[in-house]
Amino acid sequence: MRKKVDFLVIGSGIAGLSFAIKVADYGKVCIISKNEAAETATRYAQGGIAAVMYTPDTYEKHIKDTMVAGDDLSNPEIVRITITESTDRVKELIDWGTQFDKKESGRYDLAKEGGHSEYRVLHHKDSTGEEIQRALLENIRNHPNIEMIENAFTIDLITQHHLGQEINKKSEGVKCYGAYFLNPETKKIDMVLSKVTLLATGGAGNVYNTTTNPEIATGDGVAMVYRAKGLIENMEFFQFHPTSLYNPEEKPSFLITEAMRGHGGILKTCKGEEFMHKYDERGSLAPRDIVARSIDTEMKLSGDDHVYLDCTHLDKNETINKFPKIYAKCLSIGIDITKEMIPVVPASHYTCGGIKVDEFGKTSIENLYASGECASTGLHGANRLASNSLLESAVFSHRASLDAIDKIEKIALCDEIPDWDSSGTHLNEEMVLVTQSYKELQQIMSSYVGIVRSDLRLKRALDRLEIIYRETEDLYEQSVLTVKICELRNLINVAYLIIKMAKKRKESRGLHYSIDYPKTK
Ligand code: FAD
Ligand code: SIN
User: Fold this and answer.
1) pLDDT tens across 447-478, in order?
2) How far apart are CA 118 and CA 135, in angstroms?
3) Candidate from 86, 379, 387 with most ligand 2 atoms within 8 A of CB, to mutate
4) What is the CATH number of the domain that holds 249?
5) Residues 84 and 177 in one domain
6) 43, 261, 288, 505: which one is catalytic?
7) Are residues 175 and 75 in the same domain?
8) H-only helix segments in 303-387
9) How many domains are there within the chain?
10) Is residue 517 a part of any domain in this protein?
11) Is 515 contained in some domain?
C-alpha cells in the first residue's frame, strides 16, 4: 500500500497532535503512532506546563530561570521565543478543551517546581498530561481531514537514498518524501508519501534501565534522522528525574512529581536527615541536575538503594487533594504518604538533545520538521527547566505548522519510491538475542554513562556498545522485521550518539557531569 497525504505526522503526543490540528484545514493529514494513540509520554506528565500567566511573574523571570537551569548553554533567542509565546499557547490548549485547576477566585492555581523563581506551572491535579492528551485527541478524532493509524511502527524516513541516489555525509540536499511503516493489519511494510513530514516521536528514556518513560520512548525519530544523514545535537545532556518511586520490580518507574517538593516535600536520607542544603542553597528545589546528582552522591556515601521524600508534615487533605494519583499509587504498595516517607530514586527522564531544528522546527532535511522531545530547539541547553517540555512542544509545533502551511502548495509528492526491500530476511525466532542485547545495552548505559561519568567509563561503554552494535546489525540484515529489533537498533544508535557527544565535551556542564572535569563555578 502507498498512502498519499499532504502532511505526515509521526507521533500522537502533544507535539504531533497540536501540529495536526493546526495543519488539518490545509490538506490531508495522516498521524501514525506505534502504540495506541493515547500511549505517549505526554499522557504521563504530572507536574504541568510552565507559562507566564499573572504578575508578579514576568517573561524576563521565566527567561532567566530557563537560562540558569540550562547552565548558560540555551540559545537566548529560542528561549525568548518560547517564553514570550507561552501564554498564547496555553490559552490555545484551554480553547481546545484542556481543564487546568483553578482557585476559588477563578484564577489558575499555579504550582512551583525546581529552578522556578515564581509560581507558574499550570496543572490538572497530578495528571496534567492525561488531561492534555484527552483534549487533543478529542479534537483530532472529530476532524474529517485527519486519519490516525495506530499500532503502526515507522521504520525509516524515505529520502533520495531510496531512489538509489548517493547522499553525501553532511546531509546537504537531503529531502524527505515520507516514511516506511510496519502495517499492523497486513504485517507488511507499507509507505506514506507526504509533502511535509513532522517527527514527533518523543524521547529515548529506555536507553537506561531505570526510567520514568513509557515503553514507546526508544529514540526512533533521532535514529531515523541520523540514518538519513540529518543533524543531531546535544545528546550528552540526558536528564535524570530526582524522584521516581523506588519500587524495583516496576517498569517504567512511577514518577513522584517535583511539584510535591514545590508544595513543601523535603528530601531526606534513610536516617531521616535532610541533605540538600549541603549541595545547594535552594535545597530540595534546586534544578534537577543538581538534585539528582546530590541524591546519587548520598546513595553512594550511605550504600542505600534510595533516599526519601518526606511529605508527612504537610496538610493531609491538601496532599490527597493535590496529588490523588500519587497518593493512590503509593497506598497500593502499602505506603500512606500522609504518614510515611516515600522511598525515591533518580530515573532517566528526558532527552534534552535530539534532532537539530531551527526556530520553525525545520530539520537539516528538506520538508522534514521535528517537534517535542525528539527535537533539539536550543531551549534546554545543558539541562531542562521543569515543565518547559510540554511548553516547548506546543510552541514549536505551532511554529512548524506556520512554516509548513506556507510551503505546502509549492511541494510536489514524489511517487517513484520503490517498495521496501525485504530480500535476504528469513530469521524470525531469535527474540532472545534481541531481549538480551536490550538489557545489556541498558546496563552499559546505566553503569558507565549515567548521572556521573568519566573518560574511562565512556571509553568502556563505547567498546562494549560496539559489540552489541555489530551483532544487532547482522541480526537485522537477516531478520523478518519486528518492532523489538527496530527499537533495539534505534536505542543502540541513540546510545552511540550520547557516548560520542559526551566524550567530546571536555567539561562538566549541566546534566553532563564528569569526574575528570570538575566544575569550577
Ligand atoms: P510523546 O508524548 O512521547 O509521543 C511520542 C509519540 O511518538 C507516540 O505517539 C509514539 O507512539 C510515537 N512514536 C514514537 N516512535 C514511533 C515510531 N517509530 N513509529 C510510530 N510512532 C512512533 N514535561 C513537562 O513539561 N511537564 C511535566 O509535568 C512532565 N511530566 C512528565 C512525567 C513523566 C512520567 C514523563 C515520562 C515525562 C514528563 N514530562 C513532562 C516530559 C513530557 O511529558 C514529554 O517530553 C512530552 O510529553 C513529549 O511529547 P512528544 O509529543 O514529543 O512525545
Ligand atoms: C514532574 O512533574 O516532576 C515532571 C515535570 C517535568 O518533567 O517537567
Assistant:
1) 999 999 999 999 999 999 999 999 999 999 99
2) 27
3) 387
4) 3.90.700.10
5) yes
6) 288
7) yes
8) 316-322, 324-332
9) 3
10) no
11) no
Q: Report the CATH number at residue 457.
A: 1.20.58.100
Could you give the CA distance from residue 494 to residue 232 in angstroms, rounded to a whole number? 10
Please list every protein residue whose CB sits less than 6 Å from any atom of ligand 2. Answer: 46-47, 257-259, 386-387, 389
Query: How far is it, in rounded angstroms, from Cα 14 to Cα 380?
Result: 18
Task: Give the residue, 422 or 380, on which the prediction is more confident.
Answer: 380
Mean pLDDT of the chain: 96
Q: H-type helices in 271-340, by residue range?
A: 288-302, 316-322, 324-332
Do 155 and 189 belong together in one domain? yes
Which regions of 109-237 does DSSP assign to beta strands (E)? 121-122, 146-149, 153-158, 178-182, 189-199, 232-233
CA 418-16-149 angle, to 5 degrees, is 50
Q: Give yes or no: 457 in active site.
A: no
Q: Are residues 107 and 177 in the same domain?
A: yes
Residues 294 and 365 in one domain: no
Length of the chain measured in residues = 521
Q: Which domain holds residue 99?
A: 2-236+352-410
Distance CA 266, CA 501 (A): 34
pLDDT of residue 169: 65
Establish whether the linkage from the previous residue to 56 is cis, with ω within 30° of 0: yes
Indicate if 206 and 254 belong to the same structural domain.
Answer: no
Over pLDDT 90: what percentage of the chain? 91
- Tell me, yes or no, whether 510 lies in a domain: no
b vs e for 327-345, b when ≥16 Cβ sit within 10 Å of the residue's Cβ?
A: bebbeeeebebbeebbbbb
Q: How far is the CA of 122 from the centre of ligand 2 (A)?
A: 12
Distance CA 233, CA 146 (A): 32
* Interval between CA 59 and ligand 1 midpoint (Å): 26
At 272, the amino acid letter reads: G
